[in-house]
Design brief:
Blueprint: H1 2-13, H2 18-33, H3 38-47, H4 56-69, H5 72-84, H6 90-106, H7 109-114, H8 116-126, H9 131-142, H10 152-161, H11 165-171, H12 173-194, H13 204-229, H14 234-252, H15 257-271, H16 277-295, H17 301-334, H18 337-348, H19 352-367, H20 372-389, H21 394-408, H22 416-425, H23 429-436, H24 440-452, H25 454-463
Main location: membrane
GO molecular function, one term: transmembrane transporter activity
Membrane topology: Multi-pass membrane protein
């Protein structure tokens, strides 16, 4: 065990990528201790990525990239400005609302930070906000990406923990709302202290227009329900609703109705059983292509090719981490690390609340050093037996783990969101880190609420019959 973990940490310290560090330390452990034939290790490597739920990974990444190149992020930003730009600290509030909407499309914090976050930081700087404030609120709001469905970390966690991905998606909605409210309250406090004003004049017409777009989107599932209640088949009801939606969108030239339909299609489709979470990723890609090529006509074949190549690059890196981490996690199990950790923790406490505090501290630490996907694939096989032993719902634990690791993305030395925002804002990593620190407060408050009030996470999926 010491050889496996020690060599991994040493390779990380000297600067090797996390996937290579895990692969090399795993091979070294197998060679030195002969725990299994080479063919077994190779089979474990392949088995790590040979999973149907993992098909969602490239499609969700592609959907986020397509939304960026199709100009959907700009429309979402305009919608958020119309809705909340008149508030004190308006563009900071816009930043949060924009991230909420975009999180229903991308599924990753990185896509949020690099996509709509780029627009938001520039706009806040142009309106006179300190660049540190722009970076801080963008970093905090980017963590919403993997909490609201769809979520790439939920897909990986669901596969590793053998938990319903649909239940995880639904479980993220209420915590996501709680996080959004806490961030908006934080912005209001900063606006009062720093005397930030509004950034757009109060206009009933703009607010009415934005509210009308939300109302139109909400009317789609209501309309489908009413049509089916009148005796129309479900397929025809959906067709009629979409035709009416398209007609209204073209006639009134709404700025973001079709973009706002993305989370409705994904969540509604999974809820109604039209497609699985994996198939929902394909639906997101098809809807993104429709928006970019047909409705908005902002996507060119050049930009489509670029989005595809970016997806291939990102997917390859993610799956390489998953494959290497699957062998590493298997060796941790073989070396009885899980049992040793279990014995150590149960020796310290028999309270599940103390256990959750200890695990939160562990994951906050690990999240600072490991990629999210690698952390999930390594920690789940070790911690899940303890989670079940303490009678903690694995769906609830999935939310706790994901939020901890999202906070880790904002920290050095390996926080990817930190580095993306540092590059976008042209700030040093040190200044970017200090800019993010105050915005960790609402995230930690949300983490405490989600950890110690399980109903916040479990109420919705329980009501929907996804968990018992």
């Amino acid at each position: 065990m010491l050889v496996l973990i020690g060599s991994f940490l040493l390779l990380m310290i000297i600067g090797l990528p996390v996937a290579i560090s895990m692969a090399v330390s795993s091979v070294l452990y197998i060679v030195l201790y002969g725990v299994a034939p080479d063919i077994i290790a190779a089979q474990r490597l392949i088995a790590g990525v040979e999973s149907f739920p993992l098909l969602a990974v490239p499609f969700f990444i592609l959907a986020g990239n397509l939304m960026n190149v199709a100009g959907v992020t700009g429309r979402i930003y305009s919608f958020a400005v119309a809705l909340v730009g008149w508030m004190k600290g308006g563009l900071a509030q816009v930043n949060i609302i924009g991230s909420v909407v975009f999180s229903g499309m991308s599924g990753t914090a990185l896509a949020d930070a690099a996509g709509i976050g780029t627009i938001e930081i520039k706009a806040m700087k142009d309106h006179g906000y300190p660049v540190e404030a722009a970076v801080g609120v963008t970093a905090a709001s980017a963590t919403l990406g993997p909490i609201f469905p769809p979520s790439l970390p939920f897909v990986i966690y669901g596969m590793m923990a053998n938990v319903s991905i649909g239940a995880l998606f639904m479980a993220g909605i209420v915590p996501g709302v709680v996080m959004t409210v806490l961030m908006m309250v934080t912005v209001a406090i900063f606006a009062y202290i720093k005397r930030w004003g509004s950034d757009t004049p109060f206009s009933l017409r703009m607010i009415f227009g934005a509210s009308l777009e939300v109302l139109v989107v909400m009317m789609v599932p209501i309309g489908i329900y009413l049509l089916t209640a009148m005796g129309l088949s479900l397929n025809y009801a959906i067709l009629v609703a979409l035709i009416v939606l398209l007609a209204c969108d073209w006639y009134f030239d709404f700025s973001a109705v079709m973009a706002l339909m993305t989370p409705v299609i994904l969540i509604g489709g999974m809820t109604m059983g039209w497609f699985t979470p994996t198939e929902a990723a394909v639906a997101a890609v098809l809807w993104s292509l429709f928006l970019g090529l047909v409705r908005y006509r902002t996507m060119t074949f050049r930009s489509l090719a670029k989005a595809t190549m970016d997806t291939i690059e990102t997917t390859a890196s993610v799956l390489f981490i998953v494959a290497a981490a699957s062998v590493f996690a298997w060796l941790l199990t073989v070396s009885q690390t899980a049992q040793l950790l279990s014995t150590a923790i149960t020796g310290l406490t028999d309270s599940k609340w103390v256990f959750l505090i200890l695990v939160n501290l562990l994951m906050l630490f690990v999240g600072c050093f490991l990629d999210t996907i690698a952390a999930i694939t390594i920690l789940v096989p070790i911690l899940l037996p303890l989670v079940l032993q303490f009678d903690i719902d694995p769906v609830h634990f999935g939310l706790i783990m994901t939020l901890n690791l999202m906070i880790g993305l904002l920290h050095p030395p390996l926080g990817m969101v930190l580095f993306v925002l540092s590059r976008v804002a042209k700030l040093s990593v040190e200044r970017t880190t200090m800019a993010i620190v105050p915005w960790l407060v609402p995230l930690f408050v949300a983490l405490i609420i989600i950890t110690f009030i399980p109903a916040v996470t479990l109420w919705l999926p329980t009501e929907m019959g996804l968990i018992r």
